[in-house]
Amino acid sequence: MSIRVSTFLGEALIAGALMLGMAQAQTPAPTAGAATPIQHLVVIFQENISFDHYFGTYPFALNPEGEPAFYAFPNTPSVNGLGAAFLTNNGTVTNSANGTGATAPFRLDRSQAATADQDHDYTAEQMAYHSGVVDLFPMATGTAGPPPSNFPQASTTGLVMGYYDGNTVTAFWNYAQHYAMNDNSYGTNYGPSTDGALNLISGQLNGAINNTNGTGSLIEDGSGGMTVISDADPAGDVCSTTTGETFSMSGKNIGDLLNAAGVSWGFFEGGFDLTATNPNGTTGCSRSTTSLITNTKKADYIPHHQPFQYYKSTQNLTHARPTSVAMIGQASDAANHQYDINDFYAAVTEGNFPAVSILKAPGFQDGHAGYSDPLDEQQFVVHVINFLQSQPAWWANTAVVIAYDDSDGWYDHQMPPIVNQSTTSADMVTGTGSCGSGTGALPGVATGTTHAQGRCGYGPRLPLMVISPYAKANFVDHTLTDQSSIIRFVEDNWLNGQRIGSGSFDAIAGPLDYMFDFESAPNTTPFTLSESSGLPVNAAQAATAKTALRLHPVKPVTVSPSR
């Protein structure tokens, strides 16, 4: 397969070089209090969704009989989604390298919520973009089903081209109608879950240490150190694998900065409490839940989804329980800021709401194809937001960010801009062994690592939403952002713009600011959705068929499931 650099890709490389030139060498010291009206940030960090996979045809849904209907308000802005050229004349169809998987993007309906997991490795994702041509997803990341199994594309790697609309991801589309979303947000780097999780809290994949049982998840950084490019469990976590690869991380993360400033925070993940017993009798590291949609039994706690466990300063390897509910989020708490998802509800209910909370759903509700799905994910996300909106005193100064760790390899038509280059054997964006030249890459953690290799980015485009009384309503932001933009918001709001340093992407991250309106009075009216359907409980808060935005730009390609 020949690799060529497209004109678009050349422009992306130039844009990346300009962004790197903006990186800050020094940052001011933190000050007490929040810089905006947002006193509480809740990050719902989900799994494995590309932007087009959930929002490719937003705001137009097919609305077949028997599925929750979605109609957009007349003033709904457009997104950079799947227009006519991508739905009817897609280059994926004509590239023979895709074999039997060559197909245009097509709509998955609500009965097809359970799908096979796609390939989302560091190299495979780069190959899918084919130097900016963006036409090799079936060949590079596609994985055939079942599930699903009731239409032709399901049995080929063309399944990777499937997308959902507002009849399945109904809650997300309804939140977009009332709050803010971004259609130009990306994974900080290419690669799977561990990469995205670490970037969320540190903007840094360089500095891996204490590697055991193989090195498949790491690659040499060109200066004697190691960079993370794939999944492996945190070393020492009592729930981590005892036979597979593990590692730890050096350097700092956002938790270290928050601790130094005396700001309360916590990471809350399903299954982290090993003393609890699920209704099915599972307990300890074996706590698990079987999805009624995928029929898959999955562990609630997934170690490589818990990024703070990789850092000595913020880990809780034994899963020690908090000293008390009142101590959750505090620096001297026995749990060291690492908690179960149930601890979040308990703390907020009892009046102890940390300034920064990162939530990770139990496995079956995290959205990861293969064991989770959009409907189980919707239930979790809606439950969290309904809960927060039922706390009026808290909701008035809270912002919820919905973000994702990676794309799962699902098709997205937008070539990511290359803001950080790399030359390793795992890179493939601009040719074999290359994602640009790598000579201008961001530094690494260790002194002397001037340009750490193995962090090609930005990676695939991902959904990003802000749900808040201060979020702009029915607004689509086009600001270039990435996972570390969330770190930047925390730093700017609570730490006076202090940055992590040592090559963290937070130094070049775009802001979330344009998704907020801090000049107008906050809209604290609850927008309650059904956990099952995703529809507004108050029907008056949704558009109707009579009042909806008209003229769908192109009829979506659909598949007819066997019933």
Describe the protein's architecture and organization:
With 563 residues, the chain is an alpha/beta fold. 19% of the residues lie in helices and 12% in strands. The protein has 13 helices and 19 strands. It has an eight-stranded mixed beta sheet, sandwiched between helices. Strands 6-10-9 form a three-stranded mixed beta sheet, with no helix packed on it. Helix 8 (193-202) packs parallel to helix 13 and helix 9 (254-261) packs parallel to helix 13 (484-494). The protein is globular.
Helix run count: 13
Largest sheet: 8 strands, mixed
Strand content: 5-15%
End-to-end distance: 40 Å
- Gross morphology is globular
Oligomer: single chain
Q: Tell me the structural class.
A: alpha/beta
C-alpha Rg (nearest Å):
22 Å
The low-pLDDT segments are 1-8, 20-31
Number of strands: 19
Helical content band: 10-25%
Q: What integer is the average pLDDT? A: 93
